[in-house]
Design goal:
The structure is a homodimer of 363-residue chains. With 363 residues, chain A is of the alpha+beta class. Chain A has seven helices and 19 strands. The two termini of chain A are 27 Å apart. The mean pLDDT of chain A is 96.
């Protein structure tokens, strides 16, 4: 196969362009994992009875490879993704795998296709490992055959025209997750059902869903991102709040990193410029009642989503109970807490800041 | 392609053998539905970025074609499946289609492969229409390309050794559905997450999950079947109870048929032999408290699941709160209410009883 033409970076749309190669690793119940194989990007040929098509036996991960100015290529905390991918596999009774070995294969794939990592600032190579059940029998059961594949896609900055805060629709008529369900796992099954909810929000003028849980309207996630709120507590201390990992919340890598950076700032391990000296870092439930109350009392500082695709997404309002709750935003979109955290995160990812969170793919 | 060898009917395992042909109909946002095509059964070739693989953009139906003793081939109420399939498509923002036109295509497919319908009593041809999003882009959005395909599979009786009542595990640690979710739609996304719950029930000695909802432990469904309980009310009247279509319950064709047969019996439109003269037919919530209370008072008559695959599945116990609630069963498995209803249903499906529920595929 002759390599494809690389599109100009400015024309990149998330997940539409794929690089020349892909990784495939087959598994069968009888033989276990077969030898991994890096092949030209090509169709996946499935039995029309394949369980992935009928029962959503599928899970995935999302990661990025960044090209630093000095040419080094790194990934950001990929061990977290490998661990989560195995947790997702367990939830679906799909086979477990050696995360380190898979990471080595992904490293090879990226090295081979490294010309596909765009050079422009804010650009990266998006990496999508996927594990699907492939046996062609219609019983609902653990699969006897599976395929793990990895594709990669060059992507530009999620917000090419800078941070424009997004309005959210406080959603109660649809759910993303519920206790005992699969919200804490990165399963295919969690995504398709959200499309009509997003369409309904868009129709009402909102960009994304703010998924509210239960009669108390607990905040859970934003679209396909984790969620953070910043409130000035009554004792005057700035509190950075994100919902706890109670079984409904995806344990996001960006979520974990934001918490770690904030805690390192508080403990003095690494102070971040611009961040308030004292922050209360909380993994705790927060509901719309508290958002509205703190907003009324002028104590609501900001609200933002976090995820691999966009890193940080500021929010400027929440449509709720027929009205809009206005959320303060900074002059370039991000607020006083998200901005220094985002700056540090992106500094690490682009290689400007040294960190052992970077996993070197190629020098 | 040369036709495959038909396996002996006694060796059939549900959904493992497929007939010679399949139906394929492509859809694109730009052109709409393309011409349907009946082709040899062969692999489906997808972009590795196809949304069905990553986000579970998939829904399906299950129907059966029965061969009567006189050679006539019929399907059972397929209009219900076509209607439900369109409802599922709408829930996933997949394209709507003309149910009558699809049914005509399925009729042609079955006629072509009619030698695949086993002749033995209790056997049938299982029909699996499936609609999947196929566009190869990683955005979570309504698909711009889709494929509707139909495969068929000869199947034997679900319980080849007669009706053996199954023990259920009263499941609260996993959920099948929740308000605002997708339990009322036949989506791929509803199935894979149930596999670990079934495995966990099996490990404890139970065949299937009895999905209990909320702190009140409302009974919802059994494995992948709808659920009926029969209780003698305090006024001495036999009550046939199934949970209402409140958004968590799949509107099953067998469920609807059981309700219709029972109501026709009560109203005198068609009396069924063996059924109590007076029955209270209720679509209403029922919880474990009521099951236990009626069991203690000797008023619990039976409990059974309904679905296309097994038609009626009697239950003999429910593992709950560390003990077992024993459910009465009849001497051949089914109880006094399910038995006459099952007899009528199967009589219609096999052509022994005339009914406008039968849709003639071939004479």
């Amino acid at each position: 196969m002759s390599p494809k033409e690389l599109p100009p970076s400015k024309n990149l749309v998330f997940g539409r362009t794929f690089s020349d190669h892909m990784l495939r690793i087959r598994w069968t119940e009888a033989t276990g994992w077969q030898a991994p194989s890096i092949e030209p990007f090509a169709t996946i040929n499935l039995s029309p009875g394949a369980t992935v098509l009928h029962y959503a036996q599928s899970l995935f991960e999302g990661m990025k490879a960044y090209r630093h100015d000095n040419g080094t290529v790194t990934m950001f905390r990929p061990d977290m993704n490998m661990k989560r991918m195995n947790t997702s596999a367990q939830r679906l009774a799909l086979p477990a795998f050696d995360g380190n070995a898979l990471l080595e294969c992904i490293k090879e794939l990226i090295s081979l296709d490294r010309q596909w990592i765009p050079k422009e600032p804010g650009h990266s190579l998006y990496i999508r490992p996927t594990l699907i059940g492939t046996n062609g029998t219609l019983g609902v059961a653990p699969p006897s055959e599976a395929l793990l594949f990895v594709i990669t896609s060059p992507v530009g900055p999620y917000y090419p025209r800078g941070f424009k805060p997004v309005p959210l629709h406080g959603t109660t008529e649809y759910i993303r997750a519920a206790p005992g369900g699969t919200g804490a796992y990165k399963l295919a099954a969690n995504y398709a059902p959200g499309v009509v909810a997003q369409k309904s929000a868009a129709k009402q003028g909102y960009a994304q869903n703010l998924w509210l849980h239960g009669p108390e309207h607990w905040l859970t996630e934003v679209g396909t991102m984790n969620l953070f709120a910043v409130i000035k507590d009554k004792d005057g201390i700035t509190e950075l709040i994100t919902p706890p990992l109670d079984g409904m919340i995806l344990p996001g890598v960006t979520r974990d990193s934001v918490l770690a950076l904030a805690r390192n700032h508080v403990s003095g391990v690494k102070r971040l410029e611009g961040l308030p000296d004292v922050i209360r870092v909380s993994e705790r439930p927060i509901n719309m009642g508290e958002i509205i109350q703190s907003s009324k009392e002028g104590r609501l500082i900001e609200l933002f989503g976090t995820g691999t695709a966009a890193v940080v997404t500021p929010v400027d309002k929440i449509g709720y109970n027929g009205g809009d709750v206005i959320i303060p935003t900074g002059k370039d979109g991000m607020g006083p807490v998200s901005k220094p955290l985002w700056t540090e995160l992106v500094g690490i990812q682009t290689g400007d800041i040294q960190s052992d969170w970077n996993y070197v793919v190629a020098q």
